[in-house]
Each structure stands twice: as structure tokens, then as C-alpha cells.
Specification:
This protein is about 60% helix and about 15% strand. It is built from nine helices and ten strands. Strands 1, 2, 3, 4, 5, 6, 7, 8, 9 and 10 form a ten-stranded antiparallel beta sheet that branches. The radius of gyration is 35 Å and the shape is extended.
Length: about 375
């Protein structure tokens, strides 16, 4: 399939080059004809009768090449879309089987995967212990789009399944990541949770091309004990990345940001052979086993839990300050509105009523000032 995709791209590129060359030849021929006519024609002679051009295919090379390129694009679109449809049906069965074995509600009740574009499919599942729901994104090569296909080939992008599980609030909260070494710098640069709370954790239980980020050695040890070390080390393993986090991936811009505990995993799609499908199913089953392991098997010591909570308080104190400032501003606005309404009522009073109100207000303000001084002395 990859070879066919490359041939399709080459044929389209060759058609474009031929079209450009044909256009150049026509322009050059037109320029040459005009030059020859200007040098040979007599000034006083009458213009000759227009000759009828000979209708041959050579006169329409540019148009033919453009039509060929258009037909190639349309054919590539339908062929690429059809190929992705076939591949989607291949991967839908193991995905559906694993989801139905782990969740009570999968997809729309009829099918697990739904098309989002010609190369992307989504799934949603709920009804499982230790988590609220799971959603996934099956990312196929954009075979129907020559430009996107060329980008995938040059960037060495691979087909994959991304799974995100939103965990229950009662599971332990921490930040952990296992990524390839070539992706580690990008993860630190792009993910707020990893760069803020986790650090590189050395371990001889995983291959050297895998980098672990963890908040605490207890977290690293217990997650590797779940079989994660084997899932990352096996030669046939398809598990590319794993993230477990209780903090946002992007730096929050306000204090009311959403905090959820999540498990994220990326599984590479192998060749759709019997062995490849079996390995894919094994990797997906492990992801949902990890949900249970985090909920039941990870047990952090009290001092570790306090340390992690302190780290979050320190990181989020800026947002706590923002929340307090907004609260004070809201209270001040309420007091100002109340005072404004009260003054409006005073304007409607008689002079005697206004005098009494001003005396009462003066005593109230004096009492308030005395209360403030007392608090400062204490």
C-alpha cells in the first residue's frame, strides 16, 4: 500500500511538471511566432488571411495534462478513502471486543467507531469501575489526500490509536509519563504537568530508548510492577507512550481550571496480520488493566501523599491568590452597589430624615473604624 501511495504521488508530480513544461513551450512558441511576423512583414502590405489552425492533440498538451492530474487526484481520493475504510473495519473488531469486555456502554449501541474524517475515527465508552469514561482516536494515514500523505511520509508519522481514560476522583493522584527518548524534550516543553511536577526517573527495568518521568520513586516502582516494564520492553510491544496525571497538560490561565485524573496511552498500529492484531489487542487490554491497577494496586504512603499535595499547593498558589482577589472584588462591588442604592433612598427623604440618617451613618462608620483598629492591635 505504501508503494502504491508513493507511485500515486510521483505520477501526480510528474503530471504537474509536464503541464508546466507544456505551458512554457506554448508561451515560447507564441513569442517566436510574433517575433518572426514582425521582422518579415512588409509595412505597406495587407495582412494575410488568417490560417485555420490544424486540430491535433499536440495543441492541447497543457489541457490534457491538467485533466490527467485532476483525474489522478479524484482517483487517489476514492482509492485512499476505500483503503482506509477497509483498514478501519479490520481494527474495529479488536477495539470493539476489548471495549465491550470492559465497559457496559460502548459507542452508540450499534457500533464502537464513528468516522470523524476520511482518516480519523473516534470511540466513546462508559460504565466501568475506577473511571468515568474512555474515549479514543484511531488515526490512519491520510491516503486520500496527496499533500497530507506526503507530509506523513516525510515526517515518518505512523498510524496509531490514542486512548484517554478519565479516572474517578478517589484514585491516587500523581504525574507519571513513559515516552520515547526522541520525544522526551518535546514532552517537557509542551506538557505543563510533566515539566512542573515530574522529573526524569532512571530505571534499568525499561529499555534505554524509553524515558520515565515521575513525581516519586514509589509511583515509578508500583507502576512498573503492574507489568508496564514488560509492556514497554517486549520486542513486539506496540505501546508507545503512557501518561498518568491529575493536573492539566497546558498551563491554566485562570484559577477555575478543570482538574481531572486521566490515563493516556498511544498504541502503534502494526501490519493487519493475525499476529499484529493479537499484539494490538494485548496492548489495548493492558491499558484498561492499568485503570484497575491504579485504582486498586497503587498505594502511596501518607508522607508521599502530603508531599505531592504540597507541590500542588505551591504550584497553584498563584491561582489561589487570583481566586481570593476575585472574591474580594465581588464583595466590594456588592457593598458599593448597596451603598449607592442607600444614598439614592436618602435623596428622597425629608431634610429632618436626612439629618437623622447622616448621624446614624456617622456612628456606624466610627464603629467600623474602631473595629479595624482593634483587629490590627491583636
Amino acid at each position: 500500500m505504501l508503494q502504491l501511495s508513493k507511485l500515486s504521488l510521483l505520477s501526480l508530480g510528474w503530471s504537474a511538471l509536464l503541464a508546466a513544461k507544456a505551458a512554457g513551450d506554448e508561451l515560447e512558441g507564441a513569442a517566436g511566432s510574433n517575433t518572426q511576423a514582425s521582422t518579415t512583414a512588409a509595412p505597406t502590405s495587407l495582412p494575410p488571411a488568417a490560417a485555420v489552425p490544424e486540430l491535433t492533440l499536440a495543441n492541447y498538451r497543457l489541457e490534457l495534462l491538467m485533466i490527467t492530474a485532476a483525474v489522478g487526484l479524484v482517483a487517489n481520493y476514492f482509492y485512499g478513502s476505500r483503503r482506509n475504510t477497509v483498514l478501519a473495519s479490520v481494527w474495529e473488531k479488536p477495539i470493539t471486543d476489548v471495549l465491550q469486555a470492559n465497559f457496559s456502554a460502548v459507542g452508540n449501541g450499534h457500533q464502537a467507531l464513528e468516522w470523524d474524517s476520511a482518516a480519523d475515527l473516534l470511540f466513546y465508552a462508559s460504565g466501568r469501575r475506577h473511571c468515568k469514561y474512555a474515549q479514543g482516536h484511531l488515526m490512519l494515514t491520510a491516503r486520500q489526500d496527496p499533500i497530507a500523505l506526503l507530509n506523513d511520509l516525510t515526517a515518518n508519522n505512523y498510524e496509531k490509536l490514542q486512548v484517554e481514560v478519565t479516572l474517578n476522583e478517589d484514585v491516587p493522584g500523581f504525574v507519571f509519563a513513559a515516552v520515547s527518548r526522541k520525544r522526551s524534550k518535546a514532552v517537557v516543553r509542551d506538557r505543563y504537568d510533566v515539566s512542573t511536577f515530574a522529573k526524569v526517573s532512571a530505571s534499568d527495568r525499561v529499555p534505554t530508548d524509553i524515558v520515565l518521568f515521575s513525581e516519586h520513586s514509589d509511583v515509578t516502582t508500583q507502576l512498573l510492577d503492574s507489568g508496564l516494564d514488560q509492556a514497554l520492553s517486549e520486542e513486539s510491544s506496540l505501546l508507545e507512550e503512557v501518561f498518568v496525571t491529575d493536573s492539566p497538560a497546558e498551563k491554566p490561565e485562570s484559577h477555575d481550571f478543570k482538574r481531572e485524573k486521566r490515563l493516556l496511552a498511544t498504541i502503534r498500529l502494526p501490519s493487519p496480520t493475525e499476529a499484529g492484531i493479537a499484539n494490538f489487542r494485548k496492548a489495548l487490554e493492558y491499558v484498561f488493566y492499568l485503570v484497575d491497577y491504579i485504582g486498586e494496586g497503587v498505594s502511596l504512603r501518607p508522607e508521599t501523599t502530603r508531599k505531592l499535595a504540597k507541590a500542588r499547593d505551591e504550584a497553584f498558589k498563584e491561582f489561589a491568590r487570583m481566586a481570593e482577589m476575585e472574591k474580594q472584588e465581588a464583595l466590594a462591588k456588592i457593598v458599593a452597589d448597596k451603598r449607592r442604592a442607600e444614598l439614592e433612598e436618602v435623596k428622597k427623604m425629608t431634610p429632618e430624615q436626612q439629618r437623622k440618617w447622616e448621624e446614624k451613618d456617622r456612628k456606624r462608620q466610627l464603629k467600623k473604624e474602631q473595629s479595624k483598629r482593634t483587629r490590627r492591635v491583636k
